């Protein structure tokens, strides 16, 4: 697009220009004052990632004797989080068990990526259920006794698998051939919320129900693992918080944003006297049978 075309586009849609300025401000200024933690430089044997989990939501749950803290994430969406943490060095001592398909794009930097989204997909709910990640994680823990293991749950990220999400909210289909469910089939839930097509209270309730689905299983997993485990998130989620310097509302978890609802994430530590002896190894990649874009679209990643 030429400079003149960009100028004309800005005249027709000034909101796009303001949004671009906000993102540039966040990525160039706020990223320095709200600097993200490097999770692979932290001390842990097992890292449990809850996708899109806001810190203020998860701290409402009881984690027993675990130390409940927060960290600042290096990204406001999954791609930014992965790139921020995987670019510094090869993660040749890490086995990443993932429900999130984005991780597979970085399997050349990780010792082993276990693509649960490829073989453990729930066709009815169009996601990977928490119990499927727990099972795959325990298998990886046994198979790789000298590696750090990441368990990347999809929840509380959309789609909403609780009663409210399934019964009271519309669903979009994938661009790659999913079923037509509602009239607004190609619009993600956060755009629908922004457009006033769904009720914020209902969306928030459905989001919390996803926490209810995943937190008990993540806690039980952390308590059962043979080493030091940490529960965290790759990023949070917004429901209309306004960005800066132009007060535009933010919904979901767009890239290049540094609001605290997006970047303040849990850091819940389960200490253990038992620790793993970690050894690096040669990075391996595996063939994937499923179309990545189809899975991403089912999970609401329409525009990323």
From TrEMBL:
Q: What is this protein called?
A: Sulfatase N-terminal domain-containing protein
**Organism this protein belongs to:** Haloferax marinum
């Amino acid at each position: 697009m030429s400079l003149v075309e960009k100028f004309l586009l800005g005249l027709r849609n000034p909101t796009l220009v303001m949004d671009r300025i906000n993102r540039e401000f966040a990525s160039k200024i706020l990223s320095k004052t709200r600097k993200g933690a490097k999770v692979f430089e932290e001390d842990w044997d097992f890292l449990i990632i809850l996708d899109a989990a806001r810190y203020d939501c998860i701290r409402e749950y009881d984690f027993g004797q675990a130390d409940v803290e927060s960290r600042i994430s290096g990204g406001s969406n999954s791609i930014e989080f992965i790139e921020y943490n995987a670019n510094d060095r090869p993660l040749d001592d890490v086995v990443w068990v993932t429900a999130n398909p984005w991780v597979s794009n970085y399997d050349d930097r990780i010792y082993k990526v276990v693509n649960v989204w490829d073989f453990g997909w729930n066709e009815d709910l169009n996601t990977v259920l928490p119990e499927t990640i727990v099972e795959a994680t325990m298998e990886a823990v046994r198979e790789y006794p000298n590696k750090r293991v990441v368990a990347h749950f999809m929840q509380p990220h959309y789609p909403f698998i609780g009663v409210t999400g399934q019964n009271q909210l519309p669903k979009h289909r994938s661009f790659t051939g999913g079923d037509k469910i509602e009239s607004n089939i190609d619009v993600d839930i956060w755009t629908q919320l922004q457009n006033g097509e769904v009720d914020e209270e209902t969306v928030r309730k459905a989001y919390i129900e996803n926490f209810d689905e995943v937190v008990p299983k993540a806690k039980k997993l952390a308590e059962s693992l043979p080493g030091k485990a940490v529960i965290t998130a790759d990023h949070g989620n917004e429901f209309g918080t306004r960005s800066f310097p132009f007060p535009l509302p933010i919904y979901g978890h767009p890239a290049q944003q540094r609001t605290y609802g997006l970047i303040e994430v849990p850091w819940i530590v389960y200490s253990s006297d038992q620790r793993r002896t970690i050894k690096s190894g040669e990075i391996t990649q595996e063939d994937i049978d499923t179309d990545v874009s189809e899975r991403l679209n089912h999970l609401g990643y329409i525009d990323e």
